[in-house]
């Protein structure tokens, strides 16, 4: 992840987002990107969008915000640099020099396609060096000729058979001539100094390679014999001991690495990453994509500071309504118009909670205050949020500020307030073919009141008879939700905007609370309230007061 990604701030509404939640997130992201250049603000959503919201976004050509399932910090939230890597064919010496130069203790190993092959560290180099004491045979671990030449700074004098790898026993010619001749066998690799006569003898005896040290010139007769026998002849500028040492460091990284190490993805939670690193003998973890291509490398020092997603909450301020993992995120601001909930923060933050009809009105008001340019499409989505949350400016929560904001936004968006309101109303009401679960979940919110957990849904219909005919189905779904989630009560508020004089209520659980709050009688799980209710301003406060007055806890 680059530095710019690490500055990302999500602007997100509540679960089961409605138009006001999505539209205010889009509008406030635009405002923050204009006025605050420290971060990149992006709108997000905590669930699927409903048909009304989809209509709004398509109507004004605005992309659907990405869905965020959790605010739990993941590897993607780390400020990762481009990883330092080593190819599996590179020499151990190249690895050691690179690690010393870069000041690192472990390095991921990659293949030709950039996929993770293994991991290697200082301990592997040390172990290899210790194991190379008595370095006498590379029959099982051939050394690549190019790597060898690069490591010992040598060059080829003769290679008639075009050898690419060295393999065999290694003999350092420090003994008397007779001893060396008796010891050498065909296929051996002989490291030798200026003993010209021995050079010629071992070549004639069939050694596979002759490495002449100290940059000593090689006689023509030796080279002629090497050409006839197909012996590889190499000149090394180093003394014999140093040449042997460098040969041990010419083995490939793949011979000392830990192959197929466990790796993490960008979506691995930070808590799991910490455990992986603590359990790793390398105290690090490679980050790969779905094709095992290396994209990052994380060590303990990368996790010294806190790692948290940054978020601005709009249209809610309660844990029960927030996206999963919000407690682990760094909340920068809250922009809302509901009751004060239970979200707390470690540091002071900016909170704008205004009891008006829509969060989009709050956002529009801030934009008007700062006198920033509002693009037509942004004005359109903000207008939609206002009209949706106030039911075309008719609900009891509607204020004069909502009306003024709607009129001004309609002018910027280039739409007629009345005509567009009718468009939005028809787009938002579509119950045909929907199951009871779909109708209830479309605008369902959870509330915690006096220690009791309540689930309250709200929907609009144009055909009251259809809802009447589905009464049992709707009550059964409310009961299923109540039992599954241990709710004290589940409620569905049903309203017909064309006959906005009463509201139908379906309830399961402790129905007496509704009876006490609104002085009505609940019969067979349903009742009629004599007026249209705002869930946040009318229904929930009345329920809370009833629970408090009854002493229920």
In the predicted model, the low-confidence regions spanning at least 5 consecutive residues are 1-5
> Which structural class fits the helix and strand makeup?
alpha/beta
**Tally of distinct domains:** 4
Task: Please state the oligomeric state of the protein chains shown.
Answer: single chain
Major sheet: arrangement of strands: 3-2-1-18-19-20
CATH C-level label of the largest domain: Alpha Beta
- Which of globular, elongated, flat, extended, rod-shaped describes the shape? elongated
Main beta sheet, described?
Answer: 6 strands, parallel
Number of helices: 20
Helicity, as a percent range:
25-40%
Radius of gyration: 37 Å
Distance between the termini: 48 Å
CATH fold-level assignment of the largest domain: inorganic pyrophosphatase (n-terminal core)
What percentage of amino acids are in beta strands?
15-25%
What is the strand tally? 25
Q: What CATH architecture label of the largest domain applies? A: Alpha-Beta Complex
Overall pLDDT confidence: 90
CATH superfamily of the largest domain: inorganic pyrophosphatase (n-terminal core)
